Hints:
The longest helix is centred in the C-terminal third of the chain and has 14 residues, at 94-107. A two-stranded antiparallel ribbon has the order 1-2. The radius of gyration is 13 Å and the shape is globular. By secondary structure, the chain is mainly α. It has helices at 5-17, 19-31, 46-52, 77-88, 94-107, and strands at 56-60, 63-66.
Amino acid sequence: MPISEEALTGLRAAIQWNPYGARELLAILKEFPAWMKYKDDPYGPLGLILFGVVPRRRIADGLSVPMKTAPFPEDKFTACRVFGGEWKQRAFTKQELADSIEAILAELNIRF
């Protein structure tokens, strides 16, 4: 079963807010998928993007610095919790998540 539209809304919002966190999550999914666990966490792997990786700003090719951002939009947390629920239920695979992250990064024209 693919990721639901509401869960994709949460994923897209998290990626827009912290694309560097999304890149880190994508790297883990591609290189070490066994590290991704199905824990009792309200946001699933989105927690890494939302809370685990400091947002950064690219200042030159291959060079970025940590930056302060506006808080994550409160109205998007519900969609992120839907994502977390689907993750715990294994409604989509790790590969489907990686594919979705890559597609959203491309759609948003985010390059590193």
